[in-house]
Amino acid sequence: MRSPPLSSQFIDAISNHTHMEPGRVEVLFGPMRSGKSQRLAQYISWLEQYARETNYLAFRPAEDTRDTAGYIASNDENTTVPCYMISGEEPEQAFEYVTPDTTFVVFDEAEMFSRFKLFSVAATLKACGYHGIYSGLDLDYRGEQWGPIIDISHWLVEGDGRHHLLARCDYQENGERCGRPAPRTQRLRNGEPEEYHAEQMIVEGSQENIAYYPVCSIHHHINNAPREPDLARAPPWPDEVEQIYGELRNLSLPELDTLGSEDLQRFQQTIAQIQ
User: Fold this and answer.
1) Which one of 12, 30, 184, 262 has the minimum C-beta count within 10 Å?
2) DSSP string spanning 49-86?
3) From 3.30.413.10, 3.40.50.150, 1.10.730.10, 3.40.50.300, which CATH number describes the 8-165+238-271 domain?
4) Helix, strand, or coil here: 243?
5) Residue range 57-76, pLDDT digits in tens
6) To 5 degrees, how large is the angle CA 20–CA 11–CA 57?
7) Is domain 167-215 annotated with CATH 3.40.630?
8) pTM beyond 0.70, yes or no
9) Angle between the 239-249 and 261-271 helix axes, to the nearest 10 degrees?
């Protein structure tokens, strides 16, 4: 099997894994139909085959009610790996599965998890020496930041661990498909572009009148949008996130050596308080 385009630093870290230094973090992000889950499943399969003593845990949000529950799967379902389904509002449940033998942790459909809680989980796992791969949408149907992927990418990823995947624009006019690189996801309701103030998350397939497809910036349309999508808009971090990230960021390497299961439980309790 050909090596997937994981960063060389991540592959080296997995192959020479210890809990004696912070873990490495990789992110996969892009619109729907950009191959994120397929790429993620390929990464896991490759690491299982070629990396030394690889033990991973994979998670998806229980709110994702599509047919592939219990698996990370590509859209054609030809590539699948098993995963745990945990609450999107309580990603800290992942700590209950982590053991000292765990090498890396995977979260798919990251946008469905609580933004600040998953970021805190990712920061804690990194500090405790666990490597992580996080995959999901970075923008919602409006073209605005959605979920924790951008936060994780900005604050926790080093080097070339960011993988921005693009689809091909599926907008059609006069029978011709656009085909430009597509960084956004279009939502249609009854065949028309969605309203700006509609519900942010509607799982694909949960409503018959809702459809999604990837589009380029030119063919991305939102009804009654009050302004251009604000890609940088972000609410302030809750106090608990500031506390967790501040504590982890200030730890020295010798102090990181001492982090263990009791610390995971302590951070889990703090993260559970985040609104």
Assistant:
1) 262
2) HHSTT--EEEEEETT--STTTTEEE-TTSSSEEE-EEE
3) 3.40.50.300
4) helix
5) 999 999 988 767 788 876 66
6) 70
7) no
8) yes
9) 160
